[in-house]
Amino acid sequence: MNPARRTRSAARRVLAALAGVALAAVALAGCGTQQGAAGPRFALSANPSPVWQPVGIQVLALPPGQEVTIRASLVPGGLWSSQAVYAVPGDGVVDLTRDVPLEAPFTGADGMGLFWTMRSSTGRRQPPT
Predict the structure, then answer these.
(1) What are phi and psi of 81, to 5 degrees?
(2) Which residues pair with 42 in a beta bridge?
(3) Which of 21, 53, 74, 109 is 20 to 30 A away from residue 10, measured at CA?
(4) Alpha carbons 125 and 72: distance in angstroms, whole number
């Protein structure tokens, strides 16, 4: 496959995953227990960067001292997903580029780890190109 087609395919996969994160952010925004309170929500870098640069992802307003599971998924020809479990620090913010997960298919802090470790429901490691 030519490099330009691979780049477009990779860009589509990242955009689809970002759309999934945005939908999850909308769902989390309604999790607050008080009327008008801002509940748990995602914060993404202001301008999602090109496919070759990381996207800044944080989950805000989480209960400190708890664990949170963050899942990424997309459906290009089947379900692709990844997840990681994080301990929520005292400030209530899990920053995927800063925080090391307790459980994940990758090691160390990795803001894009949930994207590059996605697997299909059949166990394949990379979405089809």
Answers:
(1) -155, 165
(2) 59
(3) 109
(4) 14
- Rounded Cα distance between 91 and 65, Å, is 10
Q: What pLDDT is attached to residue 38? A: 78
The radius of gyration computed from the CA coordinates of the chain, to the nearest angstrom, equals 15
pLDDT at 54: 75
**For residues 111 and 57, what is the distance between their CA atoms, to the nearest angstrom?**
7
**pLDDT means over runs of 10, the chain (129 residues):** 51 50 41 56 77 83 97 88 97 97 97 92 67
The helix (run of H) or strand (run of E) holding residue 10 is helix 3-29
Can you tell me which residue has the tokens 């692709």? 80
Helix (H, G, I), strand (E, B) or coil at 72: strand
